[in-house]
Design a protein that fits this description.
This protein is an all-alpha fold and about 500 residues long. It has 20 helices and no strands. Helix content is about 65%, strand content about 0%. It starts with 5 loop residues before the first helix and ends in an 8-residue tail after the last helix.
Amino acid sequence: MWVFSGVGCRWLGAGGALAVAVGGWAAGTLPVRGGWGLWEPRGSALTVAGAVLAYLGLTLLVAAWWRYGALLARGLRDGVLATLACWTAPLLLAPPLHSADVYSYIAQGAMVLEGHDVYGAGPSVLGPGDLGWDAAGSVGGNWTDTPAPYGPAFLLLASAVVKLTGGAVVPAVLGMRLIAVGALALIVWAVRGLGGGPGGRDGALWLAALNPLLLIHVVGGMHNDGLMIGLMLGGVLLATRGRWVLGSVLVGLAMMIKSPAALALLFIGVLLARGGGTRALLKGLVLPGAVAGAVAAGASLLAGTGFGWLRTQSVAAAIHTPLSLTSDLGLGLGLLLGGEAEPVKAVVQKLGLVAALALVAALAWRSYRGRLDPVLGLGLSLVALVALSPMVQPWYLLWGTVVVAAAAWRGRAGQVLAVLSAALVYETQPSGHTPWFGFVLAGLVLAAGLVWARREPWAAGLPSAPPVPSQRTPGARETARLRDSAGRRPAD
């Protein structure tokens, strides 16, 4: 059937993205004030209808993405960038989707312009008449009084958007979306440059850029994780080409968006050290960090915000998120022991971070010894860090998923991360809330995905049939020829 072809998937996904955007106009993360009559609550009945439409659209998008990935895994050659454009375009003018974080970004950018200490106070310090006051009214409750955990480079971008738009909510949100689209372009460039391993660049872009988790949370929700990932992966790409200094500069900038990007410096060091002696090892351990450290210092001084970001890196851990395994385990143990749960939770969280660091060290060592691709090692390290972090949001999975896609999307890890991505995109509502049924939907998708991954494991090898044509369905004679040719390995 046409709908199951590459072109059919393209338009099915585009229709799903359009439904997500249209539903978001009624049920998205709408601002409390400053919506200009465009992004305003429309009544409970229309809100429910919008949410249903958005969920149906999301399901179409996930189904189209899943089918498209299966076709690519079987050798489909198709215009993946054209598909990405079709799936992205409907989201560009939508209100914020699945998260209110963009309002925090705008408010924090306004705090910089208004002279507030963004690392000492939250958006609640903004008052009537201040830039960003409208956006501050829509900041999620947990973040109203929380200092910014982001680096000064991102605050410079946010403050530039606020200055250009006067802090008005609608244009400021669209300005932040332009940054998100730029981040998507960076990711596409870096993933294409790294190649994606067996199966080629198309499949890598499928897992990295066409991923509904990325489209919904980076383009739709404008999370700055996309910019961090794009800069970090761009730096890794340059390092693999021998330009490790410039690569370390990009990673330093990524750190000044969000600090987890610093992990890439270890694997850039591995790239420098592999095949050399003690001197090369010392060079790899010291020089990339020194370059990135200089970039971080320069960004901190240029932004005028100082080095307060160093003390706010742990503020997010104070917020309990149900996706954090260590937080859930610690809280459960604390309640079972019958005493104060928080001290027990804190200990378990720290043990989780220690375990994550041990896994990172093991992956870096395997990469140094030549047993693991350093880019894949970085991706798996980021996945381990997220899995054992004290604070986990659905889109954090993208940190490692995009990197794994760029190195080995056809591997077992890539397939499992694809299943997790499809599941986690259901965890939050278009309004940004996390309902109980979000976990039910995520669980159902996860179960179905794991069954699929078990029945059709990509790691079993490259497809045995020649590439699947994207524009037509083979006739009976060609079908027989394809069947007779089973067992032959197609060209990439």
